[in-house]
Amino acid sequence: MASVVSPVIFKEFCPLYYLLNAIPTKIQKGFRSIVVYLTALDTNGDYIAVGSSIGMLYLYCRHINQMKKYNFEGRCESITFVKLLSCFDDLVAVGTASGRVAVFQLVSSLPGRNKQLRRFDVAGIHKSSITALAWSPNGMKLFSGDDKGKIVYSALDLDQGICNSSLVLEEPSSIVQLDYNQKVLLVSTLQRTLLFYTEEKSVNQVGTQPRK
Length: 212
Hints:
Methylamine Dehydrogenase, Chain H
């Protein structure tokens, strides 16, 4: 019996001018004109999140074609990583060049969903640039990694407005990727890839040879 060949769909790719035009290319700070660079990106079916060199997070809602802006309080520093999550509430985690990590719980117009923007800050465990972020599917756990090899676990209670963070793993080289599922955290560094079992606090290295 001949196999059924699925139809080929052609798509055209073009710059997202409607998004880029909503982000300034320069800002004025005192007498100085500062160029705005786009430094981080994440997308899902609801949002496009863009981090910038001026510490501003630009969040574009794809359903209502509206851009919103969020920033860190205090000094202006580059955003290095953003990670979106859609669960019961819409969440976005943001990491910066100095190691600051914040979670924004977004406002939703849907009944029973969050009606007030809230921000949770990860305690100052990271001291260097954030290079990876990973959510649990329910939004109650966030893992963050930095370029010094530290991995921090943050437990979020969105109802109580609480975020408790602790250092769970420290590698000798920079973290380049994190992914979490079923109580197992996949960690990739510049030297190796490993599985970290969060319940047992045990590590299982993938492969035997270090990366070149």
